[in-house]
């Protein structure tokens, strides 16, 4: 039988599979953020000639086919076809390999003017590092970047891409290029090792057109999430890789989904979907036993017709479905096991870590708190969304947990966020980690959550007055990743460590649950899980109307920033501004409005600066003049 699963923002329809050998030459059709993506399992990139651009005649495809026979084309380890939303047969073929510290890429598309490829922080254009090629000057590449607007700014630090070869022939553009994985350039995104599946994939974007210079692309755009460092024999599709690993390592799965929920014709709706063990036990291969059900991963199930309305959801394990609302102290002691927002493919835990389910009185039911956003108040949409939980019956060495920081319980509900750029700090002192931790724990991933007006977010671990770890998103884009997961290595937390969660907003609103409201929450996935004697999971929230209810509480401070520079953004800044190191404090350097008193502590940090306004015309190489257009956008 065929199981159908639709992943929001990736809209992936997959068929339940048997073995990878059977699928080695199978084509799968994916829908990625409204754009479809065709993947071919292939040992040699040249094999892609038979499947990429499948509707184009052999005669029209000749320049591309000829290039595929070259030694360079055959040397690439992996390939992917990015297709447009409007026509899944049109798009860009992308090939890559990594040798030592160098990243090699080739991209081919049908265009007569220009083509661009980007390493995207969040999966869209904002925060992207872009390289572009124009037929007007086929001897150079232009290294650029994009911040909060749709303008491609020239990299003023250094042009880090090297053009290996280019083909401009009969309506085709084929480019081969290389750069360092880490250029040391603050106007580039580092290409990091993304092989560990509990970490996020790399995100790429592409656009092309027929104008002489880079210009508005219209429907000629595409994007995807890939594992640059994955085994060459594995799929290039992030969703497919996750699914394959979960199927191999799990004993089964169970689904928690709506039977049929009619989304109300109102802007914001929170719907609680709860299933008890008794309601789920028929899905277990054990025949209904709740012995040793250890969740090792999860994948979102989002109804295709409803995907634009599903804003995000939070999954918790609770005692029963009898009291599954947001009332009472039980709400604060729920164990979080998964968080989904747009841009999330799913989650796979390390081989020695899992979430035990149904093994105690506190986790006999699964609750999904689903947030719907329906600003146009459209009626007649029925939703069957939810999540699929993959489990094993073999106990794992460590139990997983999720630390919640910032304002997870909306203690600031209704508090105004001022117009303009603002900074909001939540500080949790070392007494909190000492309350929960008897020994060091390992953080394997982090999620940074805001809403639409969020523009930058930072989560810091401070030890002995020194920042020992920073997780951040430089250019936040909720539409791409509502809970941004930074690419980072695992690291240890120790008793006495402090936390500082900082959210930056660009517009005025209020804190709240609504789609138009704002949030500031940091999630840390870690092991082994720790709890207090009272059963509280590791949380350090701003208490708001619940002072004294938590084992530890965060202090809050808001700051009105005088200008863009106050965001402290590093991406996009000139390198020379990063050479100055100074001592700053938790007190803002601009006009500050303090809602709660905080203790001023000095931290060693780098003073950032913002880039100057982009120029429209920049000389990128001797004798070459490049026009930088503000219209290269991919979503």
From TrEMBL:
Query: Region annotation Disordered: residue ranges?
Result: 575-614
List the InterPro entries. Cu2_ascorb_mOase-like_C, Cu2_ascorb_mOase_N, Cu2_ascorb_mOase_N_sf, Cu2_monoox_C, DBH-like, DOH_DOMON, DOMON_domain, PHM/PNGase_F_dom_sf
Q: Name one GO molecular function term.
A: copper ion binding
Q: Where is the composition biased (Low complexity)?
A: 577-614
The record places domain DOMON at 90-209
Pfam families per UniProt: Cu2_monoox_C, Cu2_monooxygen, DOMON
Instruction: Specify the superkingdom.
Output: Eukaryota
Q: Keywords for this entry?
A: Disulfide bond, Glycoprotein
Q: Which family does it belong to?
A: Belongs to the copper type II ascorbate-dependent monooxygenase family.
- Tell me the protein's name: DOMON domain-containing protein
Provenance organism? Skeletonema marinoi
């Amino acid at each position: 039988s065929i199981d159908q699963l639709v992943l929001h923002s990736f809209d992936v329809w997959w068929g339940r599979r048997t073995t990878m050998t059977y699928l080695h030459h199978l084509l799968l059709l994916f829908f990625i953020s409204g754009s479809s993506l065709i993947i071919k399992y292939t040992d040699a990139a040249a094999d892609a000639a038979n499947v990429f651009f499948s509707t184009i005649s052999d005669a029209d495809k000749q320049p591309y086919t000829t290039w595929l026979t070259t030694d360079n084309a055959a040397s690439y380890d992996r390939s992917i076809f990015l297709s447009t939303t409007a026509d899944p047969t049109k798009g860009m073929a992308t090939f890559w390999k990594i040798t030592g510290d160098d990243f090699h890429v080739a991209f081919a598309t049908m265009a007569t003017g220009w083509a661009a490829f980007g390493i995207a922080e969040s999966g869209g254009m904002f925060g992207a590092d872009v390289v572009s090629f124009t037929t007007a000057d086929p001897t150079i590449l232009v290294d650029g970047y994009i911040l909060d607007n749709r303008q491609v700014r020239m990299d003023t630090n250094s042009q880090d891409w090297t053009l290996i070869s280019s083909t401009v022939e009969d309506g085709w553009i084929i480019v081969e290029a290389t750069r360092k994985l880490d250029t040391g350039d603050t106007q580039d995104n580092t290409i990091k090792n993304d092989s560990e599946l509990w970490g996020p994939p790399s995100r790429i974007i592409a656009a092309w057109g027929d104008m002489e210079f880079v210009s508005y692309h219209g429907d000629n755009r595409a994007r995807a999430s890939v594992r640059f460092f994955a085994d060459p024999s594995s799929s290039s599709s992030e969703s497919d890789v996750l699914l394959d690993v979960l199927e191999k390592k799990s004993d089964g799965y169970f689904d928690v989904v709506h039977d049929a929920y009619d989304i109300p014709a109102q802007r914001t709706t929170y719907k609680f979907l709860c299933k008890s063990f008794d309601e789920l036990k028929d899905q277990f291969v054990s025949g209904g036993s709740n012995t040793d059900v250890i969740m090792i991963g999860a994948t979102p199930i989002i109804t295709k017709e409803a995907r634009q309305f599903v804003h995000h959801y939070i999954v918790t394990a609770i005692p029963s479905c009898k009291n599954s609302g947001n009332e009472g102290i039980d709400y604060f002691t729920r164990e979080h096991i998964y968080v989904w927002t747009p841009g999330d493919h799913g989650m796979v835990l390390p081989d020695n870590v899992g979430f035990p389910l149904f093994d105690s009185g506190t986790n006999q039911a699964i609750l999904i708190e689903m947030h719907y956003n329906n600003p146009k108040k459209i009626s007649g949409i029925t939703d069957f969304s939810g999540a699929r939980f993959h489990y094993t019956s073999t106990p794992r060495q460590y139990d997983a947990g999720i630390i919640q920081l910032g304002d997870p319980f909306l203690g600031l509900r209704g508090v105004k966020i001022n117009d303009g750029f603002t900074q909001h700090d939540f500080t949790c002192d070392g007494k909190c980690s000492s309350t929960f931790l008897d020994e060091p724990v390992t953080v394997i991933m982090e999620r940074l959550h805001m809403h639409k007006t969020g523009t930058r977010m930072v989560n810091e671990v401070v030890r002995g007055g020194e920042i020992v770890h920073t997780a951040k998103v430089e250019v936040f884009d909720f539409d791409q990743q509502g809970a941004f997961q930074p690419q980072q290595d695992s690291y240890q937390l120790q008793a006495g460590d402090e936390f500082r969660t900082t959210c930056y907003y660009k517009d005025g609103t209020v804190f709240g649950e609504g789609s138009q409201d704002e949030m500031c929450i940091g999630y840390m996935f870690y092991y082994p899980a720790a709890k207090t004697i009272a059963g509280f999971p590791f949380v350090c929230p701003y208490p708001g109307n619940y002072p004294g209810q938590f084992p530890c509480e965060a202090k809050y401070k808001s700051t009105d920033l005088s200008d863009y520079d106050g965001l402290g953004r590093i991406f996009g800044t000139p390198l020379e501004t990063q050479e100055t190191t100074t001592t700053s404090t938790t007190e803002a350097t601009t006009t500050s409005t303090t809602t709660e008193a905080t203790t001023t502590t000095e931290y060693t940090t780098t003073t950032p600066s913002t880039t100057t306004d982009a120029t429209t015309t920049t000389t990128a190489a001797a004798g070459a003049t490049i026009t930088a257009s503000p219209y290269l956008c991919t979503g």
